[in-house]
Amino acid sequence: MDGRSWLLHPGGTRMPVCGSDGAAFAFIEKSNTRYAVTTDISLGQDAFIQFDFSASCSVTNSCYAIELEYSLDLGLHWQPLVRDCLPTSPDCSSYTLQRLLVADTYNKWGRVTLPIPTYARSPATRFRWFQQAPFDKQQTWALDNLYIGDGCSDMCSGHGRCQKSSCVCDPEWGGEYCDESVAPLPSQLKDSFSRAPSLSHWHLVTGGKLSTVCGAVASGTALHFSGSCSRQLVTVDLNLTNAEFIQFYFMYGCMIPPSNRNQCVLLEFSLNGGINWILLTEIFYDLYSKPGFVNVLLPPAARQEGARVRWWQPTHEGSDHSDWALDNVLIAGSDQRAQISDTFGGVALPNHERAPADGTPTGRIGLLNEGEEESTSGIYTGDLDETTTYTATVSDHWLFSEDCAVQRFCSSPDGVMVCGNDDGREVYAVTHDIVPDKGWVMQFKIAVGCSVPERHAEHQVHVQYSVDFGVSWRYLVPQCLPADPRCGGQISQPSVFFPAQGWKRAVYPLTDSLADTCVTSLIHTVQTCTYSTSQKFGHTYSFLGFNLFVLFSTL
What is the pLDDT of residues 99-114, one digit of tens each? Predict the structure, then answer.
């Protein structure tokens, strides 16, 4: 950084810091005053300010912010460059916070790029980075690679820095304006938060951690935001050209709920690396006091290459207050597949498993005898016991399969998908979407409880489907009683399974009304008491276009 660019910089010194590339402007001296003031600059319509910023280098977990201000009168008066624009503020085209440079967001080097608003442009504008006193001496910060001007078109698209009026692109981006990704970007994002958020999915997580304090938001652990500083979750850059929706489970107030609209969570997207954010939806603060499913359709403006998405809570009342939780995030399109076939053992299905060879009437359930079970599942010959988990994981046919694993269950001679838990939470597995044709069927084997003689009504496994990307669900076979006028005299039991001994095969012809329709399937349990191991359910040889089975044509 050129020393001629600065008028004053008490408390600052030039030195390598926080792994910087060469000397940076570091404010680490144990003085009572820390700020930096630029010289006066003439700013035009396309001017922007760009710099690298780092706070604390992870030395402290305390929450503090550095003010970024401007002056039009040679430093006599100072105003914030970015103003608070919150959901309750009138006439806001987008939401912003004055408190921009926050320690937990920049606990390592990060680039800040801001278009300079009209009110800050003049023939002689100067800028100031200012740390409010009193402050802890460990609350350090640093600047590097400052640029103020209009020499780079589109501010290098948020994927590069402006240097001598040309863009120096980040390693993952190229082109004159850093708007061309070097490698293909992910076309979807899926996270059940069963493990720590991955860098391959998330660009930034602040104020959130994996927790079960909210109970089952969707299932298992959720990402719970209750931190005392900033709270946001930002995806990596995605290719959303074929995406259609953002879906997730959400809950407010696991500890202390939000009290006003400015404490709501905003779902936004950016097409320029986070420089500008555009609102998708506001998750109202007085809703979702219980876990709920949120489905947001992507507008055409968001369906672009290089888009990123964020969940952001502008304000809150401190640690554990105004908290919220997120689970089972899915950003994708319909992902229409020709069929789904899953044996859970990595071996192709035997020919006699591609049709109901046991003579089971279609649309009904038949109990398999022991010999038949052995003849249809001789896939793995290694030494396994009931608790052995296969090295194979649940396949990518499944969108979400929390609390499910591929292992032996109920005397199965090879791997099946076993779902269940020990704390009474609902368990489910959801397939990718599929577009069935006329004459298709869904076939699978299932064992519920296996050796439990009692037929507890609360231990049910429900088989359902959705034609609206999971917003609503219907039973694959509805309940039809003689007195029900909607059933036209037909009688049927719903597609629900209860604890029973042994394995059952289910074969369901798909109605013609589902042909050429994008279908998702769901298998889930409902229970009111604690699961034991014998109250789990398992699937093997799933043939469907829905959960845990396989859809295939009988033609």
Answer: 999 999 999 999 999 9
**Rounded to two decimals, what is the model's pTM?**
0.81
Separation of alpha carbons 176 and 44, rounded Å: 22
Q: What are 186's two structure tokens?
A: 């992910």
Tokens found for residue 409: 């269950």
Please state, as a whole number, how many other Cβ atoms lie within 10 Å of the Cβ of residue 485. 6
Cis-peptide, bond into residue 134, ω within 30° of zero: yes
Task: For the chain, list the domains and their CATH numbers.
Answer: 3-150 (2.60.120.260), 189-332 (2.60.120.260), 340-553 (2.60.120.260)
State how far the Cα of 284 lies from the Cα of 263, in Å rounded to an integer. Answer: 9
The two three-digit tokens of residue 464, written as one number: 């359902």
Cβ-contact 343, 540 below 8 angstroms: yes
Check residue 28 and give left, alpha or beta (phi > 0: left; psi -120 to 50: alpha).
alpha
Structure token digits, residue 358: 């046991």
First-to-final CA distance of the chain: 72
Tokens of 319: 């640690």
* Beta-carbon contacts of residue 65 (< 8 Å; ≥ 6 apart): 99, 100, 101, 102, 103
Which pLDDT tens digit goes with each residue over 326-352?
999 999 987 666 677 777 764 544 444
Cβ neighbors of 495 (< 8 A, separation 6 or more) are 462, 463, 464, 475, 476, 477, 506, 508
* Nearest 10 degrees: Cα torsion 339, 345, 347, 351: -70
115 vs 109, 248, 266, 315, 376, CA distance in Å?
A: 20, 32, 22, 23, 65
